[in-house]
Amino acid sequence: MTLHSRIAEVTERIARRSHDSRARYLARIAAAADAAPRRRRLGCANLAHGFAACAPGDKAALREGVVPNLAIVTAYNDMLSAHQPFERFPDVIRAAAREAGAVAQVAGGVPAMCDGITQGEAGMELSLFSRDVIAMATAIALSHQMFDAALYLGVCDKIVPGLLIGALSFGHLPAVFVPAGPMTSGLPNDEKARIRQLHAEGKVGRDALLEAEAQSYHGPGTCTFYGTANSNQMLMEIMGLHLPGASCVNPGTTLRDALTRAATQRALAITAQGNEYTPIGRLVDERTIVNGVVGLHATGGSTNHTLHLIAMAAAAGISLTWDDFSDLAEVVPLLCRIYPNGKADVNHFHAAGGMGFLIRELLAAGLLHRDVTTVWGTGLDGYVVEPVDGCGQLHWREGANRSGDESVLRGCGQPFQPTGGLRVLDGPLGRAVIKTSAVAPERHVIEGPARVFHSQEALQAAFKAGELTGDFVAVVRFQGPKANGMPELHKLMPPLGVLQDRGQRVALVTDGRLSGASGKVPAAIHVTPEAAVGGAIARIRDGDIVRLDAAAGRLDVLVDPAELAARTAATADLAEAHAGVGRELFSGFRALVGPADSGAHVFAA
Questions:
Q1: 167 with 152: CB under 8 angstroms?
Q2: Parallel, antiparallel, or unpaired: how do β-strands 554-557 and 545-549 relate?
């Protein structure tokens, strides 16, 4: 199938826009590349420190410098269900490396926080910044220059983007991303959401709510709804950074271990010492990034990636914009219904055909670049397969050529909707993003008087007091990156969902985030410029008529432009958000961070 003209057009303009920055990046990683292990040029004391704690055989191999040495950069901790399985991965990787006559070392660990634990708490205000801390920690892990390639162990929201940004700073090194897989299915996600709304209304108590949450999040592995964590796994596979079919295999299975061993073998095969040298900085190019955006639209993935993909692309010298997201969304159909835009979870998606079927369909429709570099050594044609562990021997077989459940996964011939699940909004309030895939079509346009709040707690208090009557648009501001680190505002969803179910026409406008939990309530998020820098959202007053039009891609406030411009921007006392729970350590991040539509990162352009 010929590449769709819109895919080709957007890719070409990204390449033109990025020409100079990409050229500088490629020149930098070319200068760092070397066919011989860099550790051989280290001083004797430096090298001795590098292998001092190794097993005797590994020490001898590194002393001679003739075998590849793999870095393991891990986000393991045993508090996060998604990352707890990584505890034993280094042993699996080291054994696989030794079998191949090579060495693997844990080069370093990176922090891994859980947005599910910090939702509505002060720690959530560190969440987005943790991505850039993870990137820095990755760079520190690799800075010893002992390694020929790296394996990255991470799954969740900011962890994979941070690892990839850090990996791209060492773009001359090959890299393979190694997932842990989703937990098995527990309480259905729609039932969990129902109980959350009942609790918000005071109809069930904390015990019932906690029991529902514990049945949903019940064991090791990624949460099973389609939020940022599982969007990360989709991206790593469709961008060719996972082994084919690796994303959705449950932890603690023989297949999961077999894939981890195979990832180790591929990392060794693509070092500069072999014949398949595949540096990550060349693998991740304009076509790879466009494939990632296409995958995001086709699956109705997390809105967080309108930040993360821009930041990840920038780390490779590539300039991606919200306009690129918007233009690609117009031609990419929605092929998946996974909670929150459906009832199924990622295990159901995997059983219905999963990534192999999805990639097959998008390739057949000309919506993906097939001739990309991947860690598997093929273009994307090599990813329309599924892994099988038969009699202890890993192999790949042809993936499904039809969906096993068309309520979850469909082909391009009969999509759930003809366009992608994300839309960019423009208007006098600036720019914003909306996830439409879970919003009923009759709610794609909402107009109503503004109810203005400076925190999600203030909105919740108004809800509990019975003050949120009639149709309205909730404006929750001073939640942007410079204000307080741009937290996710998930606690807004149960009360707004309750009001919507009562028949009120409601919507949310905020300079904060919602992520993969963006659900049935229309929500214009990531509004930029944010309130903390005097953006127009800071000039909205209670009663102003706000119109959110996802169909037309507009976000308007029906106030005379001259009057709006003449108003004094509201201010907020943010001192309480700048101290405690470690937030005082991030004042430099709040000063440096860029706007949402530039990726909200702290790194220089």
A1: yes
A2: antiparallel
- CA dist 75 and 152 (Å) reads 8
Share of the chain above pLDDT 90, in %: 84
Q: What is the mean pLDDT of residues 230-244?
A: 97
Eight-class DSSP state of 417: B
Tokens standing for residue 68: 């590849």
Amino acid identity of 554?
A: R
pLDDT at 1: 73
Instruction: Kindly indicate the confidence band of residue 516, based on its pLDDT and cuts at 50, 70 and 90.
Output: low
Rounded CA gap, 157 and 308, in Å?
10
Measure the CA–CA gap between 382 and 353, rounded to whole angstroms: 15
Q: Which residues of 281-296 are buried (b: 16+ CB within 10 A; e: fewer)?
A: bbbbbbbbbbbbbbbb
Q: Which of 245, 194, 243 is nearest to 215 (CA)?
A: 194
In terms of phi and psi (left: phi > 0; alpha: psi -120 to 50; beta: otherwise), the region of 114 is beta
For the segment 581-604, the average pLDDT, to the nearest whole number, is: 96
223: how many CB neighbours lie within 10 A of its CB?
25
How is residue 512 written in tokens?
């904060």
Query: How many whole angstroms separate alpha carbon 577 and alpha carbon 514?
Result: 18
Q: What is the 3-state secondary structure (H, E, C) of 473-506?
A: EEEECCCCHHHHCCCECHHHHHHHHHHHHCCCCE
SS3 320: coil
- Give, in degrees to the nearest 5, the angle at Cα 222 between 312 and 490: 75
Instruction: Classify domain 422-598 by CATH number.
Output: 3.50.30.80
Domain ranges for the chain? 5-184+219-398, 422-598
Q: In whole angstroms, how far apart are CA 485 and each of 68, 125, 385, 489, 598? A: 40, 5, 40, 12, 15
| Cβ atoms of 237 and 355 closer than 8 Å | yes
Residue 231 host element (H or E): helix 228-238
Please, what is the average pLDDT of the chain? Answer: 94
Per-residue exposure over 45-67, b if at least 16 CB sit within 10 Å of its own CB, e if not? eebeebbeebeeebbebbeebeb
Q: Cα(457)–Cα(498) distance, rounded to whole angstroms?
A: 16
- Please tell me the predicted confidence (pLDDT) of residue 517: 59
**Among all chains, which residue has been given the structure tokens 């937990």?**
183
- Token pair of 594 as six digits: 């860029």
DSSP 418: S
Rounded to an integer, what is the distance from CA 75 to the centroid of its chain? 15
Angle (CA) 134 373 159, round 5°: 15
Return binding residues: 156, 223
- At 89-103, the pLDDT tens digits run 999 999 999 999 999
Question: Binding site for [4Fe-4S] cluster: which residues?
Answer: 156, 223
Per-residue pLDDT tens over the stretch 261-299: 999 999 999 999 888 999 999 999 999 999 999 999 999
Contacts of 58 (CB under 8 A, 6+ apart): 51, 98, 103, 105
Return the minimum-mean-pLDDT range out of 255-259, 442-446, 470-474, 517-521. 517-521
Q: What is the largest CA-CA distance in the chain?
A: 76
Hey, which bits of 75-181 come out as E strands? 103-109, 149-153, 175-178
Is the pLDDT assigned to residue 321 strictly greater than 60?
yes
